[in-house]
Write a structure and sequence with these properties.
Elements lengths: L13 H27 L1 H8 L3 H29 L1 H20 L4 H29 L2 H32 L9 H14 L15 H23 L6 H24 L13 H31 L4 H7 L4 H18 L1 H20 L7 H28 L6 H34 L2 H6 L9 H36 L3 H4 L7 H11 L4 H10 L11
Helix pairs in contact: 1-5, 1-6, 1-7, 2-3, 3-4, 3-5, 3-8, 3-15, 4-5, 4-7, 5-6, 5-15, 6-11, 6-12, 6-14, 8-9, 8-15, 10-13, 10-14, 10-15, 10-17, 11-14, 12-13, 12-14, 13-14, 13-17, 15-17
Length: 536
């Protein structure tokens, strides 16, 4: 197998680094703002297309399905064929498929276009942070990631109010035009101002077998869970059982393929780094806790309490305020207290936010929603910069794309399974609690109900959402436990956020022989072409 490309890179100017940060922020924000705006508009889209709850779950989850399935190979493609080129391709695909979503005449076409958005996001998302890691060395990397987090949070927070207002006053189709200005800025900046660099690993055979196994695995489980939401209970096991079995087989095949692949999407050496594994577990638990709840929170506020989608969107702006304040200091806080403390604290704050969404006396009010989003924004502000900085600090440079892809895939897969799983749980609880008229209307379809039937419908929505909040609280608490006991406290505190030898010494000191193979590969990269890259 061929060795890594020599990294004899020219010096980078401050202007070029700013261009990298601008492209990364606008590109990732395009994907984030799309997700938050669409989640808030699920109810208007369902009404406009006369679609079922299952179809709407597919509108939300098909994007995550392709994003999670192809994120791994997106990171590897960036390592093999160039991170800038991969980022540009992803942004272009996302722009084109966003236009397709806006023009969709039916739920089926919208689902297909959303799948295309997932493909584009799978290419651009892991590259957005990897480009920052490439062009910002040492402590500047932590600062740049904090800026990326704050700016992304701002654009993400704009999504709900803007999407809600557009859905109410213009039409749900206009929501998919929101990402276009950001996309064009990212595309033009990356093409004309971001320096072109050779890929850190020579082009090799892309692991398409692994990618296919990931699609089958994630898709089978998602399809099974969504079918379970339509046909809950063991009596319909023949409808959802085969899909779940196929999904489990696909994920098992993925692990076997990656262990033997010539150029794996998930280099096995990465999984010998203890904190890398712990970060991915924390990511999975935390994003699972928020991924499902934020699809059903707007339905809870609209259907149970009668709030307009546009007003809910403005209440969701509470998320942005702590993000903008805290992420400005996140790099310093991480260096002072360590990634373990930041991730533990952020997960605990997230659990408090979930409790305030569905269990507090003020849960159904817009003021309560604003406060809940502020609490949640504070938790995310503590988690995201520490997580991303630690991720790049403990992994070899040549595998940054793969590491980012794996971590992002954990986040998106958790969101995908949460949407489908929460949908099944909410549907089952709703059917158990709703009366005949409300059950006939279905979850999210109670607009035509009046009198006692409407009250019964609202009560069933509230009770099913309370169940979901307990699930999210449990996942967030598990995330805090994993962070507290399995992430080393000294990684960020000792200032190992360096791309040079000092960082390698720090990682060796913390992990010992477990990370030695990965670190030796990184040292080979810094030589004159290096030895042949050996993968397990």
């Amino acid at each position: 197998m061929t060795g890594p490309v020599d990294q004899g890179q020219p010096s980078v100017t401050r202007r070029q680094r700013f261009a990298v940060l601008c492209a990364s922020v606008t590109g990732s924000s395009m994907a984030f703002v799309n997700g938050t705006a669409v989640n808030l508009a699920i109810d208007p889209i369902q009404e406009g297309l006369h679609a079922s709850l299952a179809a709407m779950l597919w509108v939300a989850s098909i994007y995550m399905l392709f994003l999670a399935s192809l994120m791994l190979i997106g990171g590897a493609i960036g390592d093999f064929y160039g991170r800038r080129a991969t980022f540009v391709a992803g942004v272009a695909v996302f722009i084109l498929t966003s236009i397709g979503c806006a023009l969709a005449p039916s739920a089926e076409v919208l689902i297909l276009a959303r799948a295309g958005q997932g493909i584009g996001a799978a290419l651009l998302t892991p590259m957005s942070l990897t480009l920052i890691a490439d062009f910002y060395p040492g402590r500047a990397r932590g600062t740049a990631i904090s800026i990326w987090s704050a700016a992304s949070a701002l654009f993400t927070a704009i999504g709900p109010p803007l999407g809600g207002w557009l859905a109410e006053n213009v039409g749900w189709q206009s929501i998919f035009l929101i990402p276009l200005p950001l996309g064009f800025v990212a595309l033009l900046t990356a093409i004309f101002f971001v320096p072109r660099r050779p890929p850190p690993r020579r082009p090799e055979a892309v692991d398409w077998q692994g990618a296919l196994a990931a699609v089958i695995g994630f898709g089978g489980i998602a399809y099974g869970l969504i079918t379970l939401s339509e046909r809950p209970g063991l009596g319909s096991v023949l409808h959802w059982g085969p899909a779940l079995t196929m999904g489990a087989f696909g994920l098992f095949a993925l692990t076997r393929i990656e262990m033997r692949a010539r150029s794996p999407m998930m280099p096995p050496a990465l999984f010998r780094i203890g904190t890398f594994n712990a970060i991915n577990v924390v990511t999975t638990l935390l994003y699972g806790s928020l991924g499902g709840i934020f699809v059903f929170y707007p339905i809870y506020l609209t259907d149970a309490f009668g709030h307009g989608v546009d007003r809910i969107g403005f209440a969701f702006l509470g998320f942005a305020l702590p993000m903008l304040v805290l992420t400005a200091f996140a790099g310093k806080l991480t260096r002072r207290f360590g990634a373990r403390a930041m991730l533990t604290a952020g997960s605990l704050v997230g659990a408090i936010a979930f409790a305030s969404m569905g269990l507090a006396p003020y849960s159904g009010t817009l003021r309560g929603a604003f406060g809940s989003m502020m609490i949640f924004g504070a938790g995310i502000a503590l988690v995201v910069p520490a997580m991303n900085t630690a991720l790049f600090n403990v992994t070899p440079h040549r595998s940054h794309g793969a590491a980012s892809g794996i971590n992002n895939a954990c986040a998106r897969a958790a969101t995908l399974f949460a949407i489908a799983g929460y949908g099944a749980a909410a549907s089952y609880a709703f059917r158990q609690l709703a009366g005949p008229a409300a059950r006939l209307a279905g979850y999210g379809g109670g607009d035509g109900l009046r009198g006692p039937a409407a009250a019964n419908y609202a009560g069933a929505i509230v009770s099913s959402f309370e169940l979901l909040t307990w699930v999210s609280i449990g996942l967030a608490l598990l995330s805090a436990i994993v962070a507290a006991f399995f992430i080393d406290a000294d990684i960020e505190k000792k200032g190992t956020a360096s791309s040079g030898t000092g960082a390698h010494v720090g990682v060796r000191r913390v992990y010992g022989a477990n990370a030695e193979e990965a670190l030796e590969e990184d040292e080979e990269e810094k030589g004159n072409g290096g030895e042949a890259y050996q993968s397990a």
